[in-house]
Design a protein that fits this description.
425 residues, alpha/beta, Metallo-beta-lactamase, Chain A, Rossmann fold, seven-stranded mixed beta sheet, 13 helices, binds zinc ion
Length: 425
């Protein structure tokens, strides 16, 4: 039977992921936003009633606009329990930021409550019928706690949406569960479609060495890290390598840590994480921030792309200090402050440009798969056709070519605002 997929966002870009699957019934896959310094970009409007909404994981570029749907409609949503809790934390934070910066968040606390009420929390490897025709099963995606690969079966067709995933295991999470059975169509992320990541242990070691060099010279290493996942992983690395200097944790990562620890089943080893988090000093107020900067220290803090949060407080205070450093630890989306800092060596805080004299360096702690990891998964699934999303245009094109060359499977990028009709089996 034939079906249609429409790209509403996250097409040839990273951010505002949202795709509409039309099998007669309408299923929405993700509803994210794209945060840039100038504005929030939203996915294209949905002009139809939805039969179900599926959220792959909590990151705002996949979940950020979901509550807005509840201003006018009441679709039933599916996501894992940690995704719901973490997304809720991020939605409240979005409201707070909107309040401070004076823009319209497009939803209120009422819509957040409503979203929770209309969400059916679903764990991994439990198959359920979500509409007359469509069944859903989540698999561990290995990207952040609660992240899911979505498998949909309708008629005789299986469609997989990877969301963001990670095929090799990381410090806190199991590798993605890619044993999905037979797969006909795949919508796959392409963030690193053109390259492979360096060995994780090597990255950890280089990161620890770089941190040690900074603190041994009397500086502060400020480590911007995503609230969900990355900041905890970084703390875990520093503790594991027994770094003998104060390690601080600041920002929303603290709340995210408390939520994460509520879900031991979704983690590889909750004990190690707990132990690591206990060793870090949790910063609660400005006085403690000052104190953290008065001694050589490593400060892990949000936001990971320097778009806000306590990290800006620290950067403003260390940027002139050659002994100190800013160590980025995650993907820096085009147009964000973190990307500018990395590419141009400049960051704008409260309308003023700062050119750090402190070292700026990025470490590849990616929670996304490299090209070979993705090819491995695709080879296993061996679908009839592949749709590429969630990547910058050059990366998508490189990935498309590679897939066709090595696997001989037709691959095409989804385009913003366009619908592809798939003839199916
Ligand atoms: Zn993500």
């Amino acid at each position: 039977m034939s079906f249609k997929i429409t790209g509403l966002g996250g097409c040839k870009e990273v951010g505002r992921s949202s795709f509409l699957l039309d099998v007669g019934e309408k299923i929405l896959l993700d509803r994210g936003v794209k945060l840039t310094p100038q504005k929030i970009e939203y996915p294209a409007k949905i002009k139809t009633n939805l039969d179900a909404v599926i959220i792959s994981h909590a990151h705002l570029d996949h979940s950020g606009e979901l509550p807005h749907l509840f201003v006018k409609s009441r679709p039933v949503c599916y996501m894992t329990p940690p995704t719901l809790d973490l997304a809720e934390m991020l939605w409240h934070d979005s409201l707070k930021i909107a309040g401070i910066e004076g823009f319209d968040a497009k939803f209120s606390k009422t819509e957040i409550r409503r979203t929770r009420r209309f969400t059916f929390p679903l764990g991994y490897r439990t198959k359920i019928d979500i509409t007359e025709k469509v069944s859903l099963e989540f698999f561990d995606a290995g990207h952040i706690v609660g992240s899911a690969i979505t498998k949909l079966v309708f008629d005789d067709t299986t469609l997989v949406y990877t969301g963001d995933f990670k095929v090799v295991e990381t410090r806190l999470l199991h590798k993605a569960d890619i044993k999905l059975g037979s797969v006909d169509y795949v919508i796959i992320e392409s963030t690193y479609g053109d390259s492979d990541h360096p060995d994780r242990h090597q990255v950890e070691k280089e990161f620890v060495d770089a941190c040690l060099e900074v603190v041994e010279n009397g500086g502060n290493a400020v480590v911007p890290a995503f609230a969900v996942g990355r900041s905890h992983e970084i703390i875990d690395v520093l503790v594991e390598y027994k770094v003998p200097y104060p390690i601080y944790l600041d920002g929303m990562a603290q709340k995210a840590a408390n939520i994460t620890l509520k879900y031991p089943k979704y983690l590889k080893n909750v004990k190690t994480l707990k132990k690591a988090l206990r060793k870090a000093q949790w910063i609660k107020n400005e006085r403690e921030r000052k104190k953290a900067l008065q001694e050589p220290s490593i400060i892990v803090t949000t936001a990971g792309m320097c778009e806000g949060g306590p990290v800006l407080y620290y950067i403003k205070r260390i940027y002139n200090d050659e002994k100190s450093a800013i160590f980025l630890t995650g993907y820096q989306v085009e147009g964000t402050q973190g990307r500018r800092l990395l590419d141009e060596g400049v960051i704008n805080i409260d309308g003023k440009d700062y050119r750090p004299k402190s070292t700026v360096r990025k470490f590849d702690f990616s929670a996304h798969p490299g090209q070979s990891e993705m090819l491995k998964a695709l080879k296993r699934w061996s679908p009839e056709e592949i749709f590429l999303v969630h990547g910058e245009p050059e990366k998508i094109e490189a990935f498309r070519k590679k897939i066709e060359e090595t696997l001989g499977i037709k691959a095409m990028p989804l385009e913003y605002g366009r619908t592809v009709k798939v003839d199916g089996k």
